[in-house]
Every structure is written in structure tokens, then in C-alpha cells.
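Protocol step 4 of 6: structure prediction from sequence.
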Amino acid sequence: MPLPARWALLILLSALSAVLLTLARLPAGWLLGPMVAGIVFAVAGVRLRVPPLATGFSQALMGCLIAQTITAGILKELLGQWPLFLGVLVAVMLLSWGLGWLLSLLKVIPPREALWGSSPGAAAAMVIMAQVHQADARLVALMQYARVLLVVMAASVVTTAWLGGADAGDSGLWSTVFAGWGDVPALSSLAATLAVSAIGVIADRLGFSSAGMLLPLFLGVVLNVTGFVTPVVPESLAVFSYLVIGWGVGLSFDREALTSSIKVLPWIVLSNLVLIALCGALGWAITRLYGVDPLSAYLATSPGGANTVAAIAMTSPVDTPFIMAMQVCRMGSLVVFGPIIARALARRSGR
């Protein structure tokens, strides 16, 4: 099959998979769908390679996507209750990496992959960082998105049960699939996003791989918090970023890698169920000690699925600023400090 035809077929299969996953209410459909399509192509022996420039641009956009969530209001909330936020942040990280370390000690999953894969949040960013630091991004992606799926399912069930059967965060199916596609940001916001992304792409092409995402993240946060200009990633560019990340992981699979991943999946599911239960207990402790309402505390300590947690929070009678400040704080901390901690733990676990 000619190369253009292979790409056309991959795009078609990716879009179909993404729509079906989103209609099924699974999280990150526009990333998981392309990843599934990429796996199908790779296992079938169809050879394709994502251009490095597209990979660099997708990483830079991911940095901007995270940066646009960190606002002055979020920082104000963090500063107002910093001991609580710091304690919960450290606790969730210790619980998550502790379970990952246990999986590596049991020789279920190699140390680097276990620790990158168990990072509690910023799933797409963790897959990118794992690739940059020579970990197996396929296994990391499996761990991350299995956790996201289980966390989102648990959050939806708990919220619905707590609200007495109300369908929190529900919306029309097709409006869910194509939500935000028609939104056009201000020209200044779009220009800032493209400029910051270009800086990240240049850093990546010069060999500063980690800076490809971290530099746009830092610059975007500075611009956003100072109020100079707010970088906004349009939904079309966000979908492009998800597509490229999903293809990068999926196309690197083969039959052996797929078989190995399926073998460890029960362990991954079990460890994530334990993590959800432990974070739920942490939320209960916050309720008892600080008087935060139980549902807000549970959603705030939920180890991942920030986008879906945000959708639930904004359509439910909960403390949304508190929840989002906690989620964004953990996501930003993981992207910045996660690589340092994961590498240190992996070296120790390896020894």
C-alpha cells in the first residue's frame, strides 16, 4: 500500500476508534483511539513513523494545555491552604509511587516503567516524559490509561451515588465527542500559544528533549498568571496533539510487546484499585480534619483523570476551586518534579 494510503487509512481508523471510545464515555478518547489504531497497524506489520517535527509540536502543545489550567485563582487557592495542599500532594505521590515500586520489587514490571506508569496524573505528559527518558512508553501508557479509566469510573459512580442518582456531568453524545471544536480563541491567545510552542519545538530539535514540553509549560504559566496574555490551545490543535501522542505509542507495539502487556494487566488493575481505595481513605481523613465536604474531598484526592473530574465538579454541588487547585497542583508538580523523583526511585529499585 502506498505511504499516503497507509496514512489515510490510519487517520480514518483513528477517528472512528476515537469517536466510539468517546461515545462509550471512556476518557481521553482522542488519544486512546489513535493508540488502538496504531497498535492494530503495528501488529499487522504495517510500517509507519510519526515525523519528529510533529512529535515535538505535540509535546509543546501538551505543555501549553497544562499551562492554560494554571491561573492566578488556582495559585491564590493554593497559597491560602498550602499546608493541606502540600500534605495531600506528597501523600498521593507516596501512595502511587509506593505501589509502583512494589510492582517492580515483585518483578512484575521493570523499575523505570513501573514508576513512570504509576505517576498519579498528567497521563499524556508522563507517556511523553517516559519516551524522553528511554522507558518503554507502551507499558507506561497501558499503566497510565488503565488507571485513568478506573479512576474516572470510580469518580462517576461515587458522585452519582452521593447525589442520589443524579447523572452528574451528563451531556449529549455528539456534543461530547465534538465539544469545543467550533470555539475560536482570541488572536492574541492563539499567537501566544504558537509562539510558545515554537520555542518548545526548537528546544526539542536542538536536543533538549525534556525542554520540548517543560519550556512551553513554564512560559505559558508565566504569561497566564501575570495576565499579560492567556495561551489557549484550540480543540483542533489539542486533538492533533492527542493523535500524535497516541500514534507514537501505538505504532511502536508488536506482537511480543502486546502479549507481555496483557500478561501484566491484572496486576495493573489490582494496584490501581488499591490506590483508589487508599486515596478515598485520604479524602475521608481530609473531611474529618478540615471539614471539607466528603464529595469534594474525594474528587480532590482522585489520583488522575483531571479533565473528567473537572467536568463532574463543574456540574455538581461541590467546592470546585478546591478540587481543581488540588488536581492542577499535583499535575504541575508531577510534570516538573516527576522525572527527577522517578529516575531516583528507578535507580534505587534497580539496585
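Step 5 (inspection) to follow. The mean pLDDT is 82.
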